[in-house]
Protein: Glycosyltransferase RgtA/B/C/D-like domain-containing protein
Amino acid sequence: MRLLPGRLLARVTALPAIALSAWLLVAFPLLVGGWFTPMIGLVLGLPAVVAAGALLPRLVPDLDDVPWWPVVAVLLITVAFAAVQIAYHAEALVIRRDPASYAMYTTWIAEYGHLPIPQQRELIAGDDPALSYQSLAHYERDDVIWPQFMAGAPLVLSIGYWLGGLDGMLVTTPILGALGVLTFAGLTARLVGARWAPLAALVLAICLPQQWVSRFTYSEPLAQILLLGGLVIAFDALSRRSALTDRWSAVHTLAATAGVVFGLGVLVRIDAIRDLLPVIGFIGLLLVARRGQALPLLGGLVVGVAYGLVAGYGYSLPYLEYLSDSMVPLLLISGGVVFATVVLTAALWHHGPPHTERVRWLPDAVAGVTVLVMVGFAVRPLLWPDYGHGSDFTDQWVAAVQGFEGLPIEGSRTYYDMSLYWVGWYVGLGAVLFASLGVALVLRRLALRRDLWWMLPAMLLVWTVTTTLLRPAITPDHPWASRRLIVLVIPAFILFALWFLARLTRYCEAVARNTGQRSLMRSLPPVVVAGAVASLLVPTAATSAAGIMGYRQDVGTVAETERLCASLPPKASVLVVDSGMAGGYMPLIRNVCGAPTAALNDHSPEAVERVTAAVYERGRVPVLAAPEWATLDELTGNGADAERHFHVIADMDPSTLMTPPTGSWDFQGSVWTVVPPAPE
Structure:
């Protein structure tokens, strides 16, 4: 069979979401059963991925009118992005923020294949009141420990760990980030045109947040692949008409696949429930329109979301309890959306979809309201500055960053009103302007019942952009806060901006054709294209180049972690005696080094002697760990020599509030250990 460029571009951009979803469908049940091991993963997971990757892309329809150069350009950009990100990947293993939390989650399940994590009290000092087992991103419940966050990203990162240990795990996310760029190019090729796909891929690839999240073990790159990939496969499934009574065909399989891909986003990030609410409404529209893809899409969505809910409430319950103030309203809203969709679908069943094009004023009103909403976001900082984190710790951190930047100290300031400007930092104000015009025109055309292939992407992206810009719900320092933008918000702005520029270019080409041979008008289309490219690439590249992309972060942590683990005695039970250090290093010692670990909260000589004696009584070797030599010297009464087996001085992210992040801060980490003398 001849390999056509339109066929290759269509299939290769759908493949990442298909392959990763196949892996997650197999891997999560293995984790639930406690059988998540390399051998079983190879025996069951690899055939599922190979089968899905070999069969499902064959059902994807070819893209029309695609030359070879966009395909080659997209693939080169994807490979180049992966290479650069691997070269600059971070080594975040000490928990300060989320990347190391995901890394520690990954190392545990990749090494031991099950959850929860046992506390192993019996190997330390039993139920001694001086000990605790909770640490950053690890919740103590009864006699076990539950890691924070959802299982999806660690299940994928485990593949890298199995293949290459800690280094293999850390370079997996750069590859996922590159696959996100590839998937976005495929969505652009379908909705805007294949010739615009390379520009879409390049803008996203040089965007600072895309590079930043891809250098760490964040969940956003995987979530991006699944949600954008769901839009890609749904577009392909809906490219041919099918009635509710038609027999099962390729479009039904693709629709079911799209539903699963969408739903598995919840397995990766619980807040994907919010992003998927428009999909429910869209399924209602498909049912009203008697489209045969409706029920397969619904069935696949239910399967994927069920995976996510089981993972959340079965294996991340303490995390969801922590998020209860936002989770409970989200679940209630979700129930309301499902109920409203059922009622409206039943009401419209005999009348068909609403004929919005018959209301003459409605399309223009939709476009006008869209522009006004974007203007509202633009003037929001002047009129409605936002306050109230609901967390004393966050208030203190924001106040500290304000002090660094010389800003007025207002710890409760959320800076959520600046969210549209955040987007402008990273992709340029030109992209924001073009995207605003683009989304207004797309919604106007949908109200006229034109370009209906845009319906689902517009519903999902407009909803997510609006809700995210209204309330990012994240600590507002950067680059940290840019995580909220990179999964769908920044891709949405790039996509709508390119759609507007593509239409503008076609309009200019038509004008040039109609004006004959006048040289000035014939040069108009190339000038517009050049201006479009510059307006998107120059600001995006400038922010990245002046920002934090020129150095690796936490370099040396892998080597020092291996040195620390090698220094521990064979039957070590580690007691971390500094409260500040306990949160960040306990998971490292337990999950990577495999040593039973607890925090020693009572530093009195009596407590230290009692606990260390209990460890010796169990045939174990107590190891005291602290960030400073003096702490251990005091605890052991000068009776043993402490040694430093972990010492890292490296670059780390800065934190900014009113400007894009630039430069770096210093990360310094040390672990001193000592084996106290056995009781006589």
User: Anything to note?
Assistant: The longest strand covers residues 643-652. The mean pLDDT is 92. The radius of gyration is 27 Å. The chain has two domains: 5-88+171-545, 118-150+553-674.
